[in-house]
Write a structure and sequence with these properties.
Binding site for substrate: 102, 104, 122
CATH superfamily: TolB, C-terminal domain
Organism: Paroceanicella profunda
CATH class: Mainly Beta
Active site: 199 (proton donor/acceptor)
CATH architecture: 6 Propeller
Number of helices: 1
Strand order of the largest sheet: 1-24-23-22
GO molecular function: calcium ion binding; gluconolactonase activity
InterPro entries: 6-blade_b-propeller_TolB-like, SGL, SMP-30
Structural class: mainly beta
Shape: globular
Low-confidence stretches: none
């Protein structure tokens, strides 16, 4: 990758914990959350505007359903959101017996299945899990996870990735492309390249991973084999997750966090918590997530 990227903060209020960016494949609108601030952001790339919506609970991810509805992942379960009014209605409970947990990183598989991560509200060791949802059914895939992140999938749906952030390891697992369910045990894919811990990640059309490095101040571009292709330095120390958007999914937005940063760190990185558009010198093709399947 040649040439320095252009990194521009979007005109939106900084988040305490910006997370869960996604690009709606039906509208092209990019959404993300301030989990701790209970806020949904909606960014219209064509208009260059960003709207914010106050939420009644901590939410962490959103997926398109159809022209009228979206599915929102929250600490209180899975909710359907009416696009026109923003009204939320409970679709399925998730860990309803666990007031000590909340949702975290989640992503739609090409089959329409939705992988959903949960974690302890105070990041208690092993309190979280990763679940599979499709057509009303929920299954637990992996448990004893502290901070689930980097949930993403290869373009053909045959490979899934995830991390438990404190371990520093991104895992890879073979999947049934028709269902998004694992067909084998996970194995280590990437153990890091010396900067921070893995947070959110996406896979582009070539099967390469783009990984935000929490406390590493960078975005890593990895080959399908796990080799480091490039490192993009960022103006924040706690980037959280990238997302592709635009024509050919050839543009990128990245969220970040202010959570846990003291006065000196905030003074050194005043854009902490902002979301950024990253324009690379070399064109690339990303991949948009599919709508989530509510019916078989």
């Amino acid at each position: 990758m040649s040439g320095a990227p252009e990194i521009r903060a979007l005109g939106a209020p900084a988040a305490t914990l910006g997370e869960g960016p996604s690009c709606d494949p039906l509208t092209g609108v990019v959404t993300w959350f301030d989990i701790l601030g209970k806020t949904l952001y909606e960014h219209d790339p064509e208009a260059g505007t960003t709207r914010t919506h106050a939420l009644p609970m901590r939410c962490s991810a959103l997926a398109a359903v159809d022209a009228e509805r979206q599915l929102v992942v929250s600490e209180a379960g899975l909710f359907l959101r009416d696009r026109a009014s923003g009204a939320l209605s409970l679709h399925r409970p998730l860990e309803a017996d666990r007031p000590d947990t909340r949702s975290n990183d989640s992503r739609t598989h090409p089959s329409g299945a939705f992988w959903i991560g949960t974690m302890g509200i105070d990041a208690a060791p092993g309190a979280g899990a990763i679940y599979w949802y499709r057509a009303g059914e929920i299954r637990r895939l992996f448990d004893a996870i502290t901070v689930p992140n980097a949930i993403c999938f290869s373009p053909d749906g045959r490979t899934g990735y995830f991390t438990d952030t404190p371990t520093g390891i991104i895992n890879r697992v073979a999947l049934d492309p028709a269902t998004g369910l694992p067909v084998g045990a996970p194995d280590p894919f990437d153990t890091g390249h010396g900067r921070g811990e893995p947070d959110g990640a996406v896979v582009d059309a070539d099967g390469c991973l783009w990984v935000a490095r929490w406390d590493g101040g960078c975005l890593e571009h990895l080959s399908p084999e796990g080799a480091l292709i490039a490192t993009i330095d960022l103006p924040v120390t706690r980037p959280t997750c990238p997302v592709f958007f635009g024509a050919g999914a050839g543009r990128m937005i990245l969220t970040s966090a202010r959570e846990g940063l003291g006065p000196d760190a905030l003074a050194a990185t005043p854009q902490a918590g902002c979301s950024f558009e990253i324009r690379l010198a070399t064109p690339f093709s990303g991949k948009l997530d599919a709508p989530v399947a509510l019916a078989p």
